[in-house]
Amino acid sequence: xxxxxxxxxxxxxxxIIMSLTGLFLCxxxxxxxxGNFQLFKNDDGLxxxxxSHFMGHNPVIRTIEWxxxxxxxxxxxxxxxxxxxxxxxxSHGYDQWEAKKNSEWTSRNMGILGSIIxxxxxxxxxxxxxxxxFGTLDPxxxxxxxxxxxxxxxxxxxxxxxxxxxxxxxxxYHLWHGFRSGFQTLGLNHRKYMPLITNFGYAFAVxxxxxxxxxxxxxxxxxxxxxxxxxxxxxxxxxxLVAFN
Amino acid sequence: xAGSNPNAKPMNLTLRxxxxxxxxxxxxxxxxxxxxxxxxxxxxxxxxxxNEDLLHKGQDPVAFDHxxxxxxxxxxxxxxxxxxxxxxxxxxxCQLHMRKFSDGETITIEPWRxxxxxxxxxxxxxxSAFDRIIQAGGYVSVNTGGTPDGNEIxxxxxxxxxxxxxxxxxxxxxxxxxxxxASAMLFVSAKVSxxxxxxxxxxxxxxxxxxxxxxxxxxxxxxxxxxGSCAAECPVGISLENIAILNREFLTAKVVSNxxx
Lengths: 245, 261
Ligand code: SF4
Ligand code: FES
Fold this sequence. Notes:
The complex is a heterodimer of chains A (245) and B (261).
Chain A: H1 3-9, H2 11-36, H3 46-57, H4 59-88, H5 105-108, H6 110-134, H7 147-154, H8 158-185, H9 194-222, H10 233-244
Helix pairs in contact in A: 1-2, 2-4, 2-8, 2-9, 6-8, 8-9
Chain B: E1 11-19, E2 28-37, H1 43-56, E3 79-80, E4 83-84, E5 106-110, E6 119-121, E7 124-125, H2 128-135, H3 147-152, H4 157-167, H5 174-178, H6 185-197, H7 199-202, H8 205-218, H9 229-233, H10 241-256
Parallel strand pairs in B: 1-5
Antiparallel strand pairs in B: 1-2, 3-4, 3-5, 6-7
Helix pairs in contact in B: 2-8, 4-6, 6-8, 6-10, 8-10
Bound molecules: iron/sulfur cluster (SF4) and FE2/S2 (inorganic) cluster (FES).
């Protein structure tokens, strides 16, 4: 092994890859979220479809997409490697273990949270990405693939909405620990800046996950089958009664 | 007991103690009763009472490590009621007093659990993995002169304070014991940052961090996932900032050192 492979297969080296890919994936979340806000435009999805057409066809975006694949791939791979190493560091556990008295639940359960996010990711990619890229969607009036229609119909199924909200809650907890943890691993822990990084991370976790979760909830509760917003309270109630029957 | 509080009511306790004859044998938790324990006793004195009792009964006393009994040597490794050194923050087991427990309580006592710390017997574990990590680089081999010369090297007060804070690590292993990953990074980071902060230590800083981390990995300790149990349970309050310094030192060394292996 030369020094490069040695560095990145060492315990700290793997952690560094975890943190770099994790923070990179955070930037992806921001981009994804900003684009998705167009779902809230009450324009029958035209703007959203323009945006998704751009994301699916622009060569620069398509190149960065590979970076994303690598980012997820390495983040998951290193998580597995580190978990295996850490499990084998203690094969005989304790009879009594009070970790909750010295640490946060999220920080000890990153693997479980990450696994929930992974399941979600597979469902999410299959339903939207795969169908948009390789399936055939009806065109909208601008002749763009009408991905918006797919979003609307998906988010009118209660179990789909439930999966999304649960996954976003997991993402929130994952980021709650992950954001500041990424900086700590890179050695960026300084008494002057760490409180700022920590609090920014908490805000980031809450805002990003709540914003993503608001999308399926919005469609489920506040739009009709066409994806048009329902404005009056009685209409919302009536829509929900129909949905539950 | 001399100096004890006459009003303190003696306690009767049930102990659940890990018993294991040697490293190869399998072990189990065995229950014992100890009576008339003064709240002013230290935890180790309470165990002395148990052992005297066992000796009188012709049974094998419980093996546990201890030495200074004043919180400075780091020997007294006991995992008490699910936590390193018991429930009290910032103390070693020898500095933990029985008044922190209540009459009639059941106390579970286990050895540090980590594959890198094999059980010698009962509650005593082999922590020589820590020694081997220190041997890999936790020292200064340049001649730093006599004591007065040491004071002639200008070191800013805040830096020397931080180095001193890191130097207070007593090598007890509570960090490893409390960590979900059985990681030794708090221990390693304390030594690495203590020496990296001082001019005498900077000379060998790169080889030190590379060798100590490599040794730590070979010994089979886990990798830190920034949970923070270690710092919360450390009897001398070594902070997580040291692990950040360790990571920083490691990354810089890997990038700039001349070590090609
Ligand atoms: S860092 Fe703290 S808990 Fe770990 S060995 Fe040193 S003194 Fe003990
Ligand atoms: S016996 Fe020395 S620190 Fe407890």
